[in-house]
Design a protein that fits this description.
ABC transporter transmembrane region fold, 596 residues, 10 strands, 10% strand, Rossmann fold, 3 domains
């Protein structure tokens, strides 16, 4: 997505919002009606003012009438003006409410759509896109869109209608003056459009720099313990200062360019206003028009000039929102390479778990295309079998899990679950059949009950507690201040590492899948807790297929089969005794660990 940053957005980029506007066509039409009525009411005001001046103040009939009659006539004219003001207020209020509602609703829909879309992206997307940048688009960019849809766009349309209306009225009532003013306005518009291109580019650059700052903040705040343990607070603060300063400098350049644009428009339109006023006073002095006609002309010129000035300001907002919309559309146009097939097949459940077959799989991560993570990897796991994956770090053990969950697809070879290629299964069906306990237990900002229930959203409280007891988590949860209703904090900061791991194990047990993946599931437990959870895991393994990643070989000696990976290849497999006797990679790992 960064490759697109050099492009300067244009107001046409706002067309990307069309799918989000379409469901609310009725409200948009109603808001447009109120907008037009408010603009028309504004344009009626000069006519009422002319009637007041010519008919109630300086007209021949008014001057010859007695004072009482003149007062009554003035009251009628002022009452007409008041009615115009009331109509303007009501139409403006209705327009404001409708447009504000549309802004809030469309922004919420856009934010939901972007978030939902990002959730469905494969890990490949997050290899190249920082989380902070995504958060910036969800917050800063959608807020800019809300400003435009809920305010600026309405103001722009209203002032466009008023400007065109005032222009037409001036041409109708005073064509000679208006032709001259119109020529001046053309001279204003052309440089404004040319200068607006620079404002567009600077607006996009400013938004990108803000996103960079958000990305740094998100990264650092998610790693606070590491930052503080390395006494890197000052370094990170300096790095963030530099990023925010870059954003500030970009914003200053944008604001400077936009200020020049606004100043030019205001000065030029004021010149047009003064020229029109000068021509009007000359016409009154020559007797070609009345004083009321001049007053009407002056107000129309003011409406026209102010409309152009507001449009200059709104155009800047439109450019910023166009950049934001373009960034959001880029995100929505990002398609995950991992998707469910159009006509997925279904997984046939087996009584003793699931069978798994890797057939000559070749895989490289997208960010490391020249470095194989698995090379010609073949493995068959029978239903109900427990297979341990061991080997040095970087050998490809976790890659096996990621391919099985179809976070990635191999470049060649195939993977099958119960005889059905995983590419032919829907992602939901495939992942519903798999439960995983990761090495780094993920705890959500919720209570203990909801964290365990994450494995099976419809589970009852009794089922959740049963899973917690099976994972030996019930005891420590019971000691929390509010038991299962205790809020565990962001990322489970109120729990120890072993407690977080047992919550994750209980979550997987509650899901009760036919295929269980354990990625160092007991790595964060003390010796006593490990024995307890190991017994619970052994119970959970019964009747299902289990793949276990382990660095501590003592935890996998009871596995039906141990598969050894080294440098992305399957190099050995067998039982613990067979592999020790063979004297290969596993024997060397066992010697190092058990001797220690």
């Amino acid at each position: 997505m960064s490759s697109e940053r050099a492009k300067a957005p244009s107001p046409r980029s706002l067309s990307g919002l069309a799918p989000f506007l379409r469901p609310y066509r009725g409200r948009i039409l109603l808001a447009g009606l109120f907008l037009v009525m408010a603009a028309v009411t504004t344009l009626v005001f000069p006519l009422a003012l002319r009637s007041l001046i010519d008919g109630g103040l300086v007209g021949a009939d008014s001057l010859s009438a007695d004072p009482g009659t003149r007062v009554m006539a003035l009251r009628e004219h002022f009452f007409d003006l008041f009615l115009v003001a009331v109509a303007l207020g009501l139409f403006s209020a209705a327009r404001f409410y409708m447009v504000s509602w549309l802004g809030e609703r469309i922004t919420a829909d856009l934010r939901n759509a972007v978030y939902k879309h990002v959730l469905r992206q494969s890990p490949e997307f997050f290899e190249t896109t920082q989380t902070g940048e995504v958060l910036s688009r969800l917050t800063v960019d959608t807020t800019l869109v809300q400003t435009v849809v809920g305010s600026s766009l309405s103001m722009g349309l209203r002032n466009t209608v008023m400007g065109i209306g005032a222009l037409l009225m001036l041409i109708w009532t005073n064509p000679t003056v208006m032709i001259q003013v119109l020529g001046i306005l053309v001279v204003i518009v052309l440089p404004s459009l040319w200068f607006g291109r620079r404002v567009r580019k600077l607006s996009r650059t400013s938004q990108d720099r803000v996103a960079d700052s958000s990305a740094i903040a998100a990264e650092v705040l998610n790693a606070i313990p590491v930052v503080q343990s390395y006494v890197a607070e000052s370094r990170e603060a300096t790095r963030f200062d530099a990023s925010t300063d870059n954003a500030f400098q970009a914003a200053v350049r944008r604001s400077r360019a936009r200020s020049v644009l606004v100043a030019f428009i205001i000065i030029a339109t004021s010149a047009a206003l003064l020229w029109g006023l000068y021509q009007g006073t000359q016409a009154v002095m020559a007797g070609r028009i009345s004083a009321g006609h001049l007053g009407q002309t002056v107000v129309y010129v003011i409406i026209l000039a102010s409309a152009f000035a507001v449009l200059g300001e709104v155009y800047g907002d439109l450019l910023r929102a166009a950049g934001a919309t373009e960034r959001l559309m880029e995100l929505l146009d990002t398609h995950s390479p991992i998707a469910s097939p159009a006509q997925p097949r279904s997984v046939q459940d087996q009584s003793a778990g699931s069978s798994v077959v890797f057939d000559h799989v070749q895989f490289c991560y997208p960010s490391r295309p020249d470095h194989p993570a698995l090379h010609d990897f073949s493995l068959t796991v029978a239903p109900g079998e427990t297979v341990a994956l061991v080997g040095p770090s970087g050998a490809g053990k976790s890659t096996v899990f990621q391919l099985l969950l179809r976070f990635y697809d191999p470049q060649s070879g195939s993977i099958a679950l119960n005889g059905v290629p995983t590419r032919e299964l829907s992602l939901e069906d495939l992942r519903q059949h798999i439960g995983i306990v990761p090495q780094d237990a993920v705890i959500f900002s919720a209570n203990a009950m909801e964290n365990i229930r994450y494995g099976k959203p419809g589970a009852s409280d009794d089922e959740v507690k049963a899973a917690a007891r099976a994972a030996f988590a019930d005891e420590f949860i019971g000691r929390l201040p509010e038991g299962y209703d205790t809020f565990l904090g962001e990322r489970g900061v109120r729990l120890s590492g072993g407690q977080r791991q047992r919550i994750a194990i209980a979550r997987a047990m509650l899901k009760n899948p036919p295929l269980l993946l354990l990625d160092e599931a007991t790595s964060a437990l003390d010796a006593e807790s490990e024995r307890m959870v190991q017994a619970a895991l052994e119970s959970a393994m019964e009747g299902r297929t289990t793949l276990v990643i382990a660095h501590r070989l003592a935890t996998v000696q009871k596995a039906d089969r141990i598969v050894v990976l080294d440098q992305a290849r399957l190099v050995e497999q067998g039982t613990h005794a067979e592999l020790v006797a063979r004297g290969g990679v596993y024997a060397r790992l066992a010697e190092l660990q058990f001797a220690a």
